[in-house]
Amino acid sequence: MAKSVQTMTCQQAVTTLLPCNPFLTGQAPNPTVPCCIVVTKVNAEATTTQARQDLCECLKKAAPTFGVKPEKAKVYDNL
């Protein structure tokens, strides 16, 4: 999981997004402000198409480990 995503590694991206876990696992009905802030931060790190693709693959692989519900993660597709 150490593949680089622009200036952020996959592991760093996953760790950064931990504030979103309650929403992504269905424990919270909506993303929190801290979650939105970290999504913006991770999104800003992936500035090229390749970086975004790498980030997407990284998060797809990590999601099951955290119990992420795919329908919740789709909310972030338009960011």
From TrEMBL:
<comment type="similarity">
    <text>Belongs to the plant LTP family.</text>
</comment>
<dbReference type="Pfam" id="PF00234">
    <property type="entry name" value="Tryp_alpha_amyl"/>
</dbReference>
<protein>
    <submittedName>
        <fullName>Plant lipid transfer protein/Par allergen</fullName>
    </submittedName>
</protein>
<dbReference type="InterPro" id="IPR016140">
    <property type="entry name" value="Bifunc_inhib/LTP/seed_store"/>
</dbReference>
<dbReference type="GO" id="GO:0006869">
    <property type="term" value="P:lipid transport"/>
</dbReference>
<dbReference type="GO" id="GO:0008289">
    <property type="term" value="F:lipid binding"/>
</dbReference>
<dbReference type="InterPro" id="IPR036312">
    <property type="entry name" value="Bifun_inhib/LTP/seed_sf"/>
</dbReference>
<dbReference type="InterPro" id="IPR000528">
    <property type="entry name" value="Plant_nsLTP"/>
</dbReference>
<feature type="domain" description="Bifunctional inhibitor/plant lipid transfer protein/seed storage helical">
    <location>
        <begin position="10"/>
        <end position="68"/>
    </location>
</feature>
